[in-house]
C-alpha cells in the first residue's frame, strides 16, 4: 500500500466553536466551513484535519465514535522549536478555550512539552526535543 495522502477525520459537537478554537491557535483553514465540517491544514506539510459533526462522521464511517472527553482516540504531536515556544503555546491553548492535561515540563534529558485537549477532548502533545 502506498497512499497518495493521509489525513484525519475527527468528530466535533460544535463546528463554530471548533473553528474559533483552531483559528485562534493560528491553524490555517482548509477551505470554508460548511454545515457538516470545518477543516484545517497543520504544519509545514499541510497535514489535513477535518472536524465533522459527530452524527455525520458516525454515518460516514458506519461506526461508533469515541467520546474524546473520556478516552484518547488518537494523540497528535505538534513539534515546537523551543521550550519558550512550547510555553507560549500552552498559554495560547488556554486563552483559546483548550484544557491543559499536563503542564509544560521536562520529561527526560532534552525532552520538554505538554499535553492539551481541544473543547471536544481531542488530545495534542506539544513536544520539543533538543537537536530535532
TrEMBL record:
Quote the InterPro entries the UniProt record gives: Glyas_Bleomycin-R_OHBP_Dase, Glyas_Fos-R_dOase_dom, VOC_core
Q: Which residues span the membrane?
A: none
VOC domain ranges (all copies): 4-129
Q: Which superkingdom does the taxonomy of this entry point to?
A: Bacteria
UniProt-recorded name of the protein: Glyoxalase
Organism source for this protein? Niabella ginsenosidivorans
